[in-house]
Design brief:
- The structure holds two protein chains of two kinds.
- Chain A is mostly helical.
- Helices cover about 85% and strands about 0% of the residues of chain A.
- Chain A has helices spanning about 5-55, 60-75, 80-110, 120-140, 150-165.
- Chain A is elongated, with a radius of gyration of 24 Å.
- Chain B is low in regular secondary structure.
- In chain B, about 0% of the residues lie in helices and about 0% in strands.
- Chain B is elongated.
- The chains are: A mainly alpha, B little secondary structure.
- Chains A and B meet through helix 1, helix 4 and helix 5 of A and loops of B.
Chain lengths: ~170, ~50
């Protein structure tokens, strides 16, 4: 026995997965931005604070000089840290996947209302998947994103709420 | 066949790591797989089935 809705079901899965990935990238970006801001704040405090402290407590000059040197080193090295590359990549992918998600949701109407043939639904699903893969490859290149379980869980919850609000009975 | 002519046994494949041993998942596409999907809302049958 064949499932007459199998292509609509697959399309639905694709739609949901896309929504989860948009949310996931959004949360990933937020986290990377937080790390970036934290490092910048830390560097500003340590380098400037050490200069002030050096003026006040001259007897600990080697400590303040060490802190200043370390903060300068971090400042140079931070551009090579993986989160910086990921921040740029995730921002690009997220924008494109968000647009793709809107397109997929718009097309869902035709899929759900039985206005498309199975063949057309299948083509549409693979068109979306192909665009998604191209976007990821374009921005991420040879890099990968390590999976962050907590962020993925939150992304799924947000997507479920979104789906319930707009597609729930 | 002499002892020297015998074909050496191929090294055994290492057992695949158990889920607990696996490192962070790095998917090919860089995005993690989504294992659960909410139920699909009611839909009309596809065009050719009507």
């Amino acid at each position: 026995m064949t499932d007459s809705n199998q292509y609509q079901r697959r399309y639905w899965k694709e739609l949901f997965e896309l929504r989860v990935h948009v949310n996931y990238l959004e949360k990933y970006m937020e986290q990377s931005e937080f790390i970036d801001k934290f490092i910048n704040f830390f560097l500003a405090v340590t380098s400037n604070g050490s200069i002030c402290s050096w003026v006040i407590w001259k007897e600990y000059n080697y400590i303040w000089a060490g802190i200043i040197a370390a903060s300068q080193l971090i400042n140079v090295l931070k551009q090579f840290l993986p989160y910086r590359t990921r921040l740029k990549a995730t921002s690009g992918i997220m924008r494109e996947l968000d647009e793709l998600s809107i397109f997929a949701e718009k097309e869902w109407f035709y899929v759900a209302e039985g206005k498309l043939k199975n063949e057309e639904i299948n083509e549409l699903q693979f068109e979306i998947r192909s665009k998604k893969t191209k976007s990821v490859q374009k921005h991420l290149g040879i890099n990968t994103l390590p999976t962050k379980g907590k962020l993925l869980k939150k992304a799924k919850e947000t997507a479920k709420t979104y789906i319930n609000n707009f597609y729930g009975e | 066949m002499s002892e020297e002519e015998k074909i050496p046994e191929a090294p055994k494949q290492p057992a695949s790591p158990t889920p607990a041993e696996q490192p962070d998942i790095l998917t090919e596409k860089g995005l993690p797989p989504v294992d659960e999907t909410p139920d699909m809302p009611p839909v009309k049958p596809p065009k050719e089935d009507q």
